[in-house]
Amino acid sequence: MLTLATTTPGEPEIFASLQGEGPSIGRPVAFVRLSRCNLACTWCDTAYTWRFEGDNRPHRDDQAFARQANQVVLDEADVAARIMALGQDRLVITGGEPLLQGAALARMVALLDGVSVEIETNGTVAPHPALDSQVAQYNVSVKLKHSGNPVESAQIPERLAEWSAKPQAYFKFVIAQPADLDEVLGLIETYAIPPARVYVMPEGTDSETLRARSRWLAPLALEHGLRFTDRLHIHLYGDTRGT
Length: 243
Description:
Blueprint: E1 2-8, E2 11-12, E3 14-18, E4 28-33, H1 67-70, E5 71-74, H2 76-85, E6 90-94, H3 102-109, E7 116-121, H4 129-132, E8 137-140, H5 151-154, H6 157-165, E9 169-175, H7 180-191, E10 198-202, H8 207-224, E11 227-228, H9 232-237
Helix pairs in contact: 2-3
């Protein structure tokens, strides 16, 4: 069984859209968003996947969500059938932290026919062996100090070294201020992350903020030989579920 996020109570967040970030930006894909996360970013734009009533971990909106309305549990075959019905040749699995449900994901992905799989992860959880062999691309969004997570929880040396050595892993760093790039450059050096697999992305949930931060982040990406990614879905649809 898989625990998914919802678009509305009882409706799983499974949909077709354009990938908004990273190496596959602009590509038509199917999305499935899972619930639950082992981290708690203060600026998280999908807090409804983890910050349920009774969870007091800090978040800038300080909003808690009713678990029953924001989670739904489905059989792996049901999830696979809904994905196949969308008619896309690529699937993006996001969250939350998808790799917390690695074994169930492996069973679900095995039921997909002709669909390549991309997984978005915070990089703290090792992929299940049965799942790893079925994944074409990982988007590893390592959380920096400004996320509010303890560094020892968000940046696990063993995991980062493993991701750096994995050719299908791309790194995506959320940048809120210019000084954040120093931390990124330090991680690149420490873990020998190939710069060609590093994307920097402005933090923000509205077009005005993203454009303002892009104006100083884009030149920094150019200066340091890193790739820049926008958040296309925010410009197209706003900060909404199922997009």
